[in-house]
Automatic annotation (TrEMBL):
<feature type="domain" description="Extradiol ring-cleavage dioxygenase class III enzyme subunit B">
    <location>
        <begin position="79"/>
        <end position="333"/>
    </location>
</feature>
<dbReference type="InterPro" id="IPR004183">
    <property type="entry name" value="Xdiol_dOase_suB"/>
</dbReference>
<protein>
    <submittedName>
        <fullName>Putative ferrous iron binding protein</fullName>
    </submittedName>
</protein>
<dbReference type="GO" id="GO:0008270">
    <property type="term" value="F:zinc ion binding"/>
</dbReference>
<dbReference type="GO" id="GO:0008198">
    <property type="term" value="F:ferrous iron binding"/>
</dbReference>
<keyword id="KW-1133">Transmembrane helix</keyword>
<keyword id="KW-0812">Transmembrane</keyword>
<comment type="similarity">
    <text>Belongs to the DODA-type extradiol aromatic ring-opening dioxygenase family.</text>
</comment>
<dbReference type="InterPro" id="IPR014436">
    <property type="entry name" value="Extradiol_dOase_DODA"/>
</dbReference>
<keyword id="KW-0862">Zinc</keyword>
<dbReference type="Pfam" id="PF02900">
    <property type="entry name" value="LigB"/>
</dbReference>
<dbReference type="GO" id="GO:0016702">
    <property type="term" value="F:oxidoreductase activity, acting on single donors with incorporation of molecular oxygen, incorporation of two atoms of oxygen"/>
</dbReference>
<feature type="transmembrane region" description="Helical">
    <location>
        <begin position="27"/>
        <end position="45"/>
    </location>
</feature>
<keyword id="KW-0472">Membrane</keyword>
<keyword id="KW-0560">Oxidoreductase</keyword>
<keyword id="KW-0479">Metal-binding</keyword>
Length: 349
């Protein structure tokens, strides 16, 4: 969509060229479209072009071939990668000495400086809607949700400058509906699964995201394939340089924290499960869904994730990546947690 100012410039230009009657103005907008359609029909490779003599005119040929080239360049535009962030707790944005802190900062810079996304769509562990229905935030302005208990009072004053996008939200609803996924929009603030980690990755002062952010829920179930399919349903957004991020943890056992408090040595399942997940995520995309689903059936899976909410977002990120390979950017196995960070797909050259 042109901005109001651009729209005005084009309108004046149109009026100057074609006069200002509504009919002439609409001709101004439709003529270029007709030219483009003709160029496609008569492109040198089309059978029509070979049978129509005047198209053999070199001038036209060159014109249409440069247009064709332009279309190819556009269609080969790299798709935005997708990510999985291990986001930690509400303390992650305050603990600058934790090893994940500089890692999230550098992934955030990679996204804002190399990808420069048009928008971000985020799926957090902390929003599980219904077993068979997805919810998403379709409001432009929302608050934060302090969905944690027993932390110091200042944690409940955390801020994050988020702007939603009703347009993008409604497109996501369309995509989900086309994929046969029941979904509805609502006004819902960002939870700490998003804002705590994003305050590190996309610090509003040092590395602002500067694009709309739409949060979409998970299913309220533990089905890895349903979440993979959820990611696949929104995969086409990547063609428009929209970055899809799942946020959770690769190992997340809060119950066992009481045994490991103050001791960073990982419990055995933190190592074995995090490693098994890495192998599955990095497997060939043609077998990835199957391998990743099998990880949830491992004997250590229930220890690593007494609830699977923190694991499901990695299936969304992998599904959204479709044929792109996954790569572990970093991990840290600490007590009853693991903090692996993943990217699926390549950065623009
Ligand atoms: C192609 O079209 C241009 C302008 O319309 C004309 O000058 C030129 O002679 C034509 N060339 C051929 C090969 O028909
Ligand atoms: C068309 O392009 C070729 C090179 O790609 C050039 O040699 C030729 O002069 C061009 N013809 C016209 C009519 O512009
Ligand atoms: C920050 O993280 C490190 C590493 O996990 C931990 O040792 C330290 O206690 C944490 N600091 C605070 C204030 O929580």
């Amino acid at each position: 969509m042109p901005t109001a100012r651009e729209g005005e410039v084009w309108r004046c230009y149109g009026a100057a060229m074609f006069g200002s009657s509504p009919l002439r103005q609409s001709a101004f907008y439709t003529l270029p479209l007709i030219v483009v359609i003709l160029a496609i029909i008569f492109s040198p490779s089309s059978p029509l072009a070979r049978s129509v003599p005047f198209v053999n005119n070199l001038t036209l040929k060159n014109f249409s071939s440069s247009l064709t080239k332009a279309f190819h360049t556009l269609s080969k535009m790299p798709k935005a990668p997708t990510y999985f962030f291990s986001h930690g707790g509400p303390d992650v944005q305050y603990n600058t000495t934790h090893p994940v802190y500089p890692v999230l900062q550098s992934i955030g810079k990679e996204i804002t400086q190399k990808i420069k996304p048009k928008a971000v769509v985020v799926f957090s562990a902390h929003w599980q809607a219904e077993p068979n229905e997805i919810h998403l935030n379709n409001a432009e302005k929302t608050d934060l949700i302090y969905d944690f208990y027993g932390f110091p009072p200042e944690y409940y004053k955390a801020t994050y400058p988020n702007t939603g996008s009703p347009e993008l939200a409604s497109r996501i609803l369309d995509l989900l509906s086309k994929a046969g996924i029941k979904a509805r929009g609502m006004k819902r603030g960002l939870d700490h699964g998003v804002f705590s980690g994003f305050n590190v990755a996309f610090n509003p002062e040092t590395n602002p995201l500067n694009c709309p952010l739409v949060q979409v829920s998970l299913f309220n179930n533990e089905d890895p394939n349903a979440h993979y399919k959820l990611g696949q349903a929104v995969s086409s957004l990547r063609d428009e340089n929209i970055v899809i991020i799942g946020t959770g943890m690769t190992v997340h056992n809060l119950r066992d924290m009481r045994f490991t408090w103050g001791d960073p040595r990982p419990l055995p399942y933190s190592v074995s499960f995090d490693n098994a997940l890495k192998e599955a995520v990095e497997s060939d995309p043609s077998v990835r869904q199957e391998k990743m689903a099998a990880v949830t059936k491992r004997p250590d899976a229930r220890q690593a994730h007494p609830w699977m909410d923190h694991l499901m977002p990695v299936y969304v990120a992998a599904g959204a990546a479709s044929e792109e390979k996954g790569k572990q950017l970093w991990t840290f196995q600490e007590g009853s947690f693991a903090w692996a960070q993943y990217r699926f797909g390549e950065l623009p050259a």
